[in-house]
Amino acid sequence: MTGEVKNLLKHLIYSSRPFGFDQNILNGILVNSVDNNKRNQLTGALICRSDLYLQYLEGPIESINETFKKIENDDRHVEIKVLKEGMHADRLFPKWAMRDDPVRSWMWSREEVDTGALDNISASDAFNIFQRHSKELLDLQ
User: Fold this and answer.
1) Structural domains in the chain?
2) How many CB atoms lie within 10 A of CB 18?
3) How confident is the model at residue 2 (pLDDT cuts 50, 70, 90)?
4) Distance CA 19, CA 16 (A)
């Protein structure tokens, strides 16, 4: 049983609002994230646009906790909210040190985000977004 626990991965989903968002800032985040995530054995996906970040991270517990602490202290993020944390055996994004995608139209309009869509999302709904996103990526391969 102890060996099974050691092999489990932590996943964390959070939302935040960008502060000072533009393409150059996003590119910087992605370049740094890919390098850091590879080094720390993290994979995941970042759904983003000028009014929101929605991120899924997965990997070793300590790496997730350290990375999220950095995010919490990063002034490019405001209104950070953990939507879901959990443990699992298999990665949703095994090939992506950080997959980025703009928010799709099936998610939320800007008005919905402004009026609290991310405040009302359940943990299972947040997880389902990334499960669906992972499946879409597999279908593209």
Assistant:
1) 2-140 (3.30.70.100)
2) 19
3) very low
4) 9
